Structure formats: structure tokens, C-alpha cells
Amino acid sequence: MKSLHPPRPGRLLWALWLLSVLSASSVCAWRLKAADLRVYYAAARSYFYHSGPMYGPNDVFGWPMFYRYPPLFLCLFRPFALLPLRAAAGLWAGLKVFLLGPLLRMWCRRFIAPARLLPAVSLSALLLMPYFVHELESGNVQLLLVELVCFALLLGDEHPFVSSLLLGLTAAIKIWPAFLFPYLALRGRWRLGIYASSATVLLTVAPVGWLGWKNLFHLLAQWYAQEKRINALLGDKWYPSQSLRGLMLRYLTWMDYSGLPDPNYRRVNLVSWPSIDVRHLWLLLAVLLVLFSMALVYRCVDDAAAYSIFFCFLLIVQPNVHPIIYVTLLWPALFAGIVITDQRCPRFVRWVLKGAAAVAVLVPLVPGASFQRLAQVLGVDFLGVLLPITLALVTYASRSWSPAPIVRSCEPPPKADR
What is the rounded CA–CA span in Å between residue 265 and residue 11? Predict the structure, then answer.
């Protein structure tokens, strides 16, 4: 009689990964919300299949929607618009969860010892799960871009051409990956930053192959005019932003929520300063924080910590940050798993990271729309998750500052001699 052997852990992980892909696809298709995906879907069908406009209000689903990305993304999204909406939503969510598998595999092989895999990944999952679920439900493109940027950073030394293409693709869709290029130069990878910048320009005009120069430049002009107009109208009247700017405006100015889809947010302002003064103060702080983050990134010994600091400060200084954009913390959350399993890590840092994970998981579970509105205007995600993670990772990285980046590849920090 043959003995029964338990399945290998690797097979169980791959089975769990495939189950996650199928579950995400099925749930997102069955419980169809996809507020952001509907915008991409409607704009693609309007422009490619009904000779309608790409930009401007689109009320296909009964309310005005604005497609806000350059033409390249809609051209890439076009195959999804051929499918029924539910099928497109399921495949879109499945694609993002599918990419997490090889990304986590690359990360764990490079940074995490097998004995520490479970506690490290557990903390990362707790920090990110609420934002992942929300992002998958909305169908936004942010998680996909974050995954591609993480792939690019992991492949930067071994496959610089592929890395530059990935960075160029993401920066051609959203502007925020381009802010990584100066940080690459600070880490001694200025060539990669130059190649990625060139790829961004080339990929931005790549749709000329099927749109033509005239149509492409006309669409780019429409996109720029729309973004300029929308950004001017956003002002203080939008969703409760989970960024430094949003927090400053809510605490230091009198907010008028009457123009929001949900006007029932509470006012939490401590003073009522002029909005323009608060904006100028925020702009000054944002510039100082960017310079401070550059100094931190330059002095970090290892790249994993340096790029974690970049992603954290990116969310802090962005003007408007919806909670779903917190999936940008993918790299910092994975690095936090390494930090918490490091025996040299200060106890203070461990408790701060555990507290941030508790806030991220527990706050969305509290019932009641009034509480959730209050949590948003108070900036619980910013004060309870983003700032603690940033503080903990900067504290951990500061234990091994160097006058210049001495590790040129994404390798774990060297272990101290015992």
C-alpha cells in the first residue's frame, strides 16, 4: 500500500493563487459595481464602436462620466470593450490578481527566507487587503500600474530594457510613475531613468499607428484641456482626500460639501483660514517633503527600503488621494513584512506596523455610514495607516544610513555580525 504524502507547500500556494484569481473574477463579475471600469468601458465603446467622443461627459450608464487618461490606455483597453460589461469586469479583476502571483514569487525569492514567509506575507496582506478589495470592486487601473512598476523595479538590474518599457508604459498612462525617475538617478540608475523617459514619450504617441497624427494630437489636446478644467474645478470640493493636502484643507478651512455626491460629511475644521493660504502652505510643505524624501532615498543602504520611502512620500504629497489609491503601498507593505520579521528590528517599529495593520483592517468593518464618513473626513487612512508605515520604515532604514547608496541592486540589507 502506497503511503500518502501531503502536497508540497509550493503546490498549495499556486492552487491558492489560482483560486484567488477565479474568486476575484467571479465576485467582481457577479456583484457588478466597477464604477471606474464603467468609465473606461463606456469611453472605449463610444469612441471605437459608435464614433462618439473619447473625452467629455459620457452618460451611457445614466450619469455623466469623464475618461481622464491619455488615448494610449483606451487603445489598450479596447479588447475589453468588445466583451459584455460583466465579462470585462471579471477579466479585468482577474488580470490584476493574476499578476500578483509572479510578483510575490519574485519578491519572496529575493528578499524573504522561507522560514519567515508566513508572518511576513501575513502582515502585508493585513495592511493591503481592504484597499485591494475596494480597488478591485471599483475596477480602477491603479493596482495594475503599481504591479507593473514593482515588476520594473525588481527587473531593473537584470533586464533594464524590459524595466524601462514597463516604467514608460505606466508613465504614459498616469503621470505618477514619472516621479520615480529622479529617484532612480539617486540610486545610481540614471540610465534606466533616461530610457524610461524615452519610452514614455514613444508610447504616448504610439497610438498614431491606428489613430493617425491628426487625430492623436487632437485627442491629446482634448485630454489636456479637460484635465486643466477638472483640476481647476476640484478645488476643495471633491471626495475627502487621504493626503496631506486633503487633511490640511479639512482641518484648517471651512469645507463646503454641498457639491459632493454625498453632502453628509461632517466639518472637522479647527480654524477657518483662507483656502488659498492653506494651499500655499501645503505647496511649501510638499516641496520640502519631496526634498527630504530624496535625501532619505539617497542615503538608504538597500533599494527595497529606498523605494518603500518613495511610494510612501508619493501618497503623502499627492494633491488628491482616494482610499483605493492606497494600493500604491504594495511595495512598502511587502517591505514591512521583511521589517517585522527581522530580529534586529526595534520593538517600537514592530508595534507601529501592527497598529497600522489593525487600523487598516478594523475601520472598514465598523458598521454605519455616518462612522465611515467621519473616518474619511478625519483622515484615518492617512493618520492611522500611511503615516505610521512611513514613520516605521524610515526609522528602520535610518539604522543603516550611508553617505551614498552602496547597494546597487534590489538585494536585502546585509545582516549584522553576531
Answer: 48
What the block records as the C-alpha cell of 221 is 489636446
Q: 87-96, 111-120, 325-334: lowest mean pLDDT where?
A: 111-120
3-state helix, strand, coil in the chain (%, to 5): 70, 0, 30
- What's the count of helices (H) and strands (E) in the chain, helices before strands? 19, 0
Helix (H, G, I), strand (E, B) or coil at 191: helix
Binned at pLDDT 50, 70 and 90, residue 255 comes out as: confident
Dist. CA 337–CA 353, nearest whole Å:
9
The alpha carbon dihedral of 337, 92, 147, 101 has a sign of: positive
Q: Classify 67 as helix, strand or coil.
A: coil
Backbone phi, psi, residue 58, to 5°: -130, 115
Single-letter code of the amino acid located at 51: S
Q: Which residue has the higher pLDDT, 231 or 225?
A: 225
Closest Cα to residue 253, out of 231, 277, 285, 280?
277
Residue type, 20: S
pLDDT digits (tens, 9 = 90+) for 289-312: 999 999 999 999 889 999 999 999
Residue pair 47/219 in contact (Cβ under 8 Å)? The answer is no
User: In this structure, what C-alpha cell is assigned to residue 244?
Assistant: 496631506
The pLDDT of residue 70 is above 80: yes
| Region for 416 from its dihedrals, namely left if φ exceeds 0, alpha if ψ lies in -120 to 50, beta otherwise | beta
Sign of CA dihedral 108, 110, 111, 114: positive
* Intra-chain end-to-end CA distance of the chain, in Å: 49
pLDDT at 404: 45
Instruction: Give helix 330-340 / helix 117-138 axis angle, nearest 10°.
Output: 160
Give the DSSP per-residue string, 107-154: HHHHH--GGGHHHHHHHHHHHHHHHHHHHHHHT-SHHHHHHHHHHHHH
Q: What is the pTM of this model?
A: 0.91
